[in-house]
Amino acid sequence: MHRRTLLGSSLALAVTPALAQETFPARPIRLLLAFAPGGGTDLIARTIANAMGPSLGQTVVVENRPGAGGNIATEQVASARPDGYTMLMGNHGPMSVNVSLFPNMRVNPETALDPIGLVADAPLIVVVGPKSRATNLPQLLEEIRAARGNITYASASNGSASHLAAALMLQMAGLEAEHVPFRGAGPALTDVVAGHIHFMVTTLPSVVGLIQSNSVRPLAVTGDTRMTLLPNIPTVAETIPTYKATAWYGLLVPKGTPEPIRARLFAALRTALANPEVVRRLRDEGAEPSTMDGPGFAELIRWERERWATVVRQARITVD
Question: 28-122+247-315 is classed in which CATH architecture?
Answer without folding.
Answer: 3-Layer(aba) Sandwich (3.40)
